Amino acid sequence: MNPLDGNAIAGPLASFFGTEMTTAEGSCRHCGRTSRVAELRVYASGPGTVARCPTCEGVLFVVTEIREQISVSSDGFAFVAGA
After folding, report:
1. How many domains does the chain have?
2. DSSP conformational letter for 13
3. I want to staple 25 with a disulfide (CB 3.0 to 4.6 A). Which of 19, 50, 72, 80 is the partner?
4. CA distance linking residue 43 with residue 4, whole number of Å
5. β-sheet bridge partners, residue 36
6. Residue by residue, what is the 3-state secondary structure of the chain?
């Protein structure tokens, strides 16, 4: 399966966080790489959408929407303050 880029989760992340998130920077908690959300590899074929690190493929975000309720787990991504 070919991944999409992080722009594929722009809508749900903006709804959840209340602001545009594709330019937000953070580091992968698995390998330490710093990247923007737009640079992540997104897989959207399961019940949830998964965003992975472009370097180590570690899971950074899981986005689900059930009955118009968006849930975001970003345990693998440490946002960089002020970026």
Report:
1. 1
2. H
3. 80
4. 6
5. 25
6. CCCEEHHHHHHHHHHHHCCCCCCCEEEECCCCCEEEHHHCEEECCCCCEEEECCCCCCEEEEEEEECCEEEEECCCEEECCCC
C-alpha 19/C-alpha 76 separation (Å) is: 20
Q: What is the span of the domain harbouring residue 36?
A: 4-79
Tokens linked to 71: 């849930």
Any idea how long the chain is? 83
Residue in the block written with tokens 């059930």 = 66
Contact 30, 58 (CB under 8 A): yes
Per-residue pLDDT of the chain (83 residues), as tens digits, is: 789 999 999 999 999 999 999 999 999 999 999 999 999 999 998 788 999 999 999 999 999 998 889 999 999 999 987 65
Asked if 56 contacts 47 with a C-beta cutoff of 8 angstroms, the reply is no
Question: pTM, whole model, 2 decimals?
Answer: 0.89
